[in-house]
Every structure is written in C-alpha cells, then in structure tokens.
Write a structure and sequence with these properties.
heterodimer; A: mainly alpha; three-stranded antiparallel β-sheet; two-stranded antiparallel sheet; 16 helices; 65% helix; globular; B: alpha+beta; five-stranded mixed β-sheet; 11 strands
Chain lengths: 482, 144
C-alpha cells in the first residue's frame, strides 16, 4: 500500500500544521538588549583593530607616523563582523519564535566570547591554518555552525528520556571513541589528539567530555542514595561501597590511559576533574574528592617517573627558562607576551608584529593553544580578567539552572555541562600563565577549531533546553530498588 | 600630543570599558535573579507532586515535604489522601542527614516505590514515584 504522493503545497501545509503548536513567539528583551551591547562592544573592538593596523601600515609606508587620522579610522574586515552579528541575531530570533522560557544570559555571553575570538583571528597571521581562505574566515564558519548547533539543541530538545535511559549506550560510544583514537589517532606535535576518518578530522576529546557528563549524570543520580548512605571503612577512610568503587577506578584508569596513549595531559585532567566535581555535586562528601585527588597525584607521580613526555612537560613548567630556545620556547614567549601586555595591554593589533608565528618573539600554535596569551598581550590584565569573568557568568548560569532543576538527573547534568566548560577554560588559562603544566586543550569559544566550537555550542544548547521549566516533566524512573 | 596616538588610546579604552559595561549589565541581572530566588520561601527540603489521583487531592497538587511527612487517610497526617485503598496511617517519608527514606507503616494495601513494594525502609531520591492506594506522588527538588 503506498500513500498518494502529496503536492508541494499540501506537504508544506501539513508541515506547517505539525510545527504550528511549537511556534509561540515570545519576546526576549533582556537577551536582545545584551546582544545589542555585544554588537557595540565588538564594533568598537573592530574599529580599534582596523585603525591600529592602518596606522601601522601608513607608518611603514611613509617612514614616520601619519600626521592625522584622515581616512585611517576604519573597522577591520567589517563584512566578517556583520555576518557574525547577523548569526547571533538569527539565533536570537529562532529562540523568540519558538518562545520557550529559557535562559537569556547564555547567548549574549558566548556571543561576546565568540566575537573576541573572531577579532583575535582577524589579527593573527591568516596563513596559520584554515582551508577557506584564511584563519578568520574559517573560524567564522565554525562560529556560525557552533551557534547553529546551540540554537538547534535549545529549540528542539524537549525531554531528556533519550539521554538518561541509554546511559550505558552513551558510555559505550565514549569508550569506543577513545579506543578509536588510541588506534587510528594521528600524532600532531607529539600528541595523539586528532582523529581522521576520510576527509573529516576532529578532536574526539571535545565530544568525549559531553558524553562523560551525560553518563555520569545518569549513573550518579541513579546510585546517589547508595553512594551517600553506605560506605566501606578502610582504616580512617570511608570508601564508597565496593561495587560502586569499580566505575571510579575505571574512570581513574581511563584518565591515566589518555595520558599514556594520547599523551594528552589536558584531556586527562579535564575528564578526571569533572568526574570528581560531579561526584561531589551528587554526594556532598569531601572524602571522595580528597581520595580522588590523592589517587590522581599518585598516578601522576608514577607517570612522571615512567614516561619521558610527562617529565618534559613538568620540567618545562618548573623552569622554562633553562631551555628557552627549545622545549620551553612556547611557554617563555607566552610569559613575555603577558609581560608586554601589562595592565591595559597594547591594544588590539598593537602587539608584536610577529605574534603567532614561529619568527622570534612569536608564540607557536598561538591560535589553538595560546589565545589567552594573545589576549593578555593586547587587552592586558584588565581584558583577561573580563574574559575570565565571562566564563564565571557561564558557570553561574549553569549552577543556577542546576539548582532549580526538578530532579537529580537534570541537576547533575546542568552542573556538569557548565563545569566542564569552566574547568576547561581554567586548565588552559592556568597553563598559559604557567600556573600548572601546559596542556593542549582549547580555550572554549575562543580557540581556533571546529570540534571545540561545535561541542561547546552543543553544551550551551542543552543548558538552554534544561533551563526551560515548563516543558517535559522527568519520565518515571525505571529501576529495580530490590 | 599626537592626535593619532590619542585617538587610538580612546578606542582601546572604550573597548575595554565596554567589556566591563557588558559584564556589569549581566551581573546586575544575575544579582536580581539571585535576590528573587532568595525571597522565595524554600524552607521545605523537597516537594511531593501528585501525578495521579482518583479524587482528593487533585492531580498537580504540590505538598512541601518536611523532615518528617506522614501520609494516610486520617486527618492527623501531614498529607491526607482521601482514597478508600489508603490506610489511616499508611506511610512515612523522612529526610535523615543526606537522603530521603520511605517506610510503610503496616498498611493494608502496601506502599510502592517506582512500582516495587516497600519492605522496611527504602532510600528515595528526587524524581522517584511513590504509590499509595490509587494515589501516585513524585518527590521533587524544592527549587523546581
């Protein structure tokens, strides 16, 4: 039996009838006004960058600083900024049309972070990376795709049963992804981070962190009463009951495995830190966290003794200046960049002209590993503190959404999603500042790179969906309490 | 002083200033939101939402769940369930230390947690369903 083929107007009418109940336009004035402020800020930033570059060019051409500013004040690449702001507006309009009562702070905050990223990429040498005709264009494409992923998740996700019910499936996908990276991963700069299948390449760690949070939220919310109430005493410590220790030991082993096989200290630190934070969120027991940190330190000590690449990282961290021309070069240049920036910075475009290249004075891999150092040089301490403030706003929103969630699962999920972004920003910022050993993970929403922007866009989208109080009561638990 | 240098300085400082104007605007919204949340009476540890009921209380009723909440048909219970399958003193929900517990008070028709009969004291977490007679209740976090 085949259905009569529908004519296009019939089909579109049917589609409209299906979609109609989901479209309830509701204005979001707070989001719109904050987005206006974001647009103004980015426009002034673009003017600063363009004018500084024009003055530099004029100085170089004439051999002396230009006497007046005639014709020199101009935005840098206004077309890219315009496209980006239109994408932000589009995301806002999509949220308005659907009319869910979701958070109005998240979109402007990541909008400003992404805009800073765009300005930074316009300013760096365009041949650093990117197949689409330069660094800035490629980054713009990924930023827009990240916003699209966020909007799609924020509009479409209306229940979480598909997330919470199949948590072991998600865990299996995560472990599979990890194993695939172990086997097929391509080594870049001594780290096996990149997975390439056919023409597509990406950093599985970015997806893995989302999957980890989804799994842990399911696992911890289900076993919370048991984790909280029962314990096995070993000497002065109160350990979780033995069957529930297994996943924790497995998690620890996975983190160490990532360090050994992928040579990726950052991902290991991120995954394990998020695991401990969520364990604390779920049980409110410091004992578990202390125990986890002790296990991680012990494992770290073992790795330091056993593996050369770990030792190199730690030695560079302790004393980069003893090897300033070889292994410690990146770190030393980043420290010089922060020092040149001072309190107010050198202004966008005013940093050293060799910033970001392998020429003397530049930081290798600045667009992925050291955007924080570049911001430190050009915006100074003031600007860097503002950027950290934006990440704090993201964390605060996530924790507020968690605090008003109706059940454990959504609370742990929301807390985990915001903390994973915050912890990642902290790890890489602290690495750039030589506060902890340098790692190769990205600065969320600012670093160059598609996987990172897509995964973080998705995270914010799910947070948006979770902040909607009205829709979709949690499904009835299916659990054997016996 | 050189007008070019001054103009660039003005632009730079305006950009940094605007970053903080944005942060300030966001923080103001966050503070207002936090104050509003603090004003809401959230003395309850949790809440019990009626999700199925043959009569009284109607579906959708929200009861605050205190440290000790008794459920039954008798009017002296914290939550009175007017259903002929519910015993006078039917079940007890308590919050002890870090978690919730459900126990049956020797009722005729039994108490069920997520469809399983409760024997002795059973740990409960937010999102779980308690069935007493024909009434189904869900324990939810107080903030939601």
């Amino acid at each position: 039996m085949t259905a009569r083929p529908m004519s296009p107007p019939e089909a579109s009418a049917l589609l409209w009838a299906r979609l109609r109940p989901y479209l309830r336009p509701r204005p979001r004035w707070r989001e719109l006004s904050l987005l206006g402020l974001v647009g103004l800020t980015l426009w002034v930033g673009s003017l600063t960058l363009g004018t500084t570059l024009n003055v530099q060019a004029a100085t170089l051409a004439a051999g002396q600083p230009p006497p007046s500013l005639d014709g020199l004040i101009a935005a840098s690449r206004p077309e890219l900024l315009a496209i980006y702001l239109l994408a932000l507006l589009g995301a806002h309009l999509a949220l308005v049309v659907v009319g869910r009562r979701t958070d109005q702070i998240l979109l402007p905050t990541i909008g400003l972070l992404g805009g800073l990223s765009l300005l930074l990429m316009e300013r760096l040498p365009q041949d650093l990376a990117g197949r689409l005709g330069g660094l800035a264009q490629t980054q713009l494409v990924w930023l827009v795709l990240g916003l699209a992923a966020m909007t799609a998740a924020g509009v479409a996700i209306r229940g979480d049963a598909w997330l919470r019910r199949y948590k072991y499936t998600w865990a299996a996908v995560g472990v599979g992804l990890l194993l695939l990276t172990f086997v097929l991963g391509r080594e870049v700069n001594g780290q096996r981070l990149t997975l390439q299948i056919g023409p597509f390449s990406g950093q599985p760690t970015e997806l893995l962190k989302v999957i980890l949070v989804v799994f842990l939220a399911g696992y911890l919310s289900e076993n919370r009463p048991l984790l909280v109430e029962q314990s096995t005493r070993v000497g002065p410590f109160r350990l979780p009951p033995v069957p529930y220790l297994v996943p924790m030991v497995a998690m620890w082993a996975i983190a160490l495995g990532v360090v050994i096989v992928q040579r990726d200290l950052g991902a290991a630190l991120l995954l394990f830190a998020v695991f401990l934070l969520l364990l604390y969120v779920a049980t409110a027991r410091w004992g578990y966290v202390v125990l986890g940190i002790a296990a991680f330190i012990a494992g770290g000590g073992l790795l330091y003794a056993a593996f050369g690449h770990v030792r190199t990282r730690v030695d560079i961290w302790l004393d980069p200046f003893s090897r300033a021309q070889e292994a410690g070069y990146q770190v030393v240049q980043a420290l010089h960049a922060f020092a040149r920036g001072g309190i107010l910075g050198s202004g966008l475009g005013g940093g050293l002209p060799t910033i970001g290249t392998s020429l003397p004075g530049g930081i290798p891999e600045i667009h992925t590993d050291f955007p924080f150092a570049a911001l430190g040089e050009e915006l100074g301490l003031i600007g860097v503190l503002a950027v950290l403030g934006l990440y704090l706003v993201l964390i605060e929103r996530g924790l507020r959404i968690a605090a008003s969630a109706p059940d454990e699962y959504r609370a742990i999920l929301a807390a985990g999603l915001s903390l994973v972004v915050g912890v990642q920003a902290f790890i890489i910022a602290a690495g750039n500042l030589k506060l902890i050993p340098l790692t190769g993970i990205t600065l969320p929403f600012i670093s160059y790179g598609g996987s990172s922007l897509l995964a973080n866009g998705l995270i914010v989208g799910v947070l948006l969906a979770l902040s909607d109080r009205g829709v979709g009561a949690p499904p009835a638990p299916r659990r054997n309490t016996s | 002083m050189d007008p070019v240098v001054i103009a660039i300085w003005i632009l730079r400082l305006a950009f940094l200033g605007l970053l903080y104007v944005f942060l300030g605007a966001v923080v103001r919204v966050l503070l207002r939101d936090l104050r509003a949340a603090a004003r809401e009476p959230t003395s309850a540890l949790g809440r019990l939402v009626v999700i199925a009921s043959p009569g009284e209380p109607p579906v959708g009723t929200v009861f605050p769940a205190d440290a000790v909440t008794t459920l039954g048909r008798d009017v002296n219970n914290t939550i009175v369930l007017d259903d002929s399958f519910v015993s006078g003193e039917h079940a007890l929900i308590t919050f002890r230390g870090r978690g919730w517990f459900l126990e049956d008070l020797g009722s005729t028709n039994g108490t069920f947690l997520n469809g399983e009969p409760v024997a002795g004291v059973a740990p409960v977490s937010f999102g779980d369903e308690v069935t007493i007679g024909g009434v189904r209740l869900r324990l939810e976090r107080p903030g939601g």
